[in-house]
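SAMPLE LOG
Freezer: B-3
Tube label: C17
Construct: single chain, 95 aa
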Amino acid sequence: MKRTNATSNCVFEQLGFPKREAANLRLRSAMMDAVIAEVEKRGLAQAEAARLMGITQPRVSDLMRGKLHLFSMDMLVTLLAGLGMRVEFKVKKAA
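STRUCTURE (predicted):
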């Protein structure tokens, strides 16, 4: 990982990840946060969350512990859909 300018507003860039990888991590992190927040908001047990999202309870445990490296963007979209949520995004020119 290459060190970057500390004035970046992206924590992943501040940690030294290349811009492309940092962008992916930032999006996956936001989606993971949304899944965790919805599970917590509903007060779902891990087994019930697993059933709704179509994954195993150990995968829910990984999710709730924030193990971002274990979840692709596609998987996170699928998990959100299983909770009755949808992902919307906007593309704009980088600053």
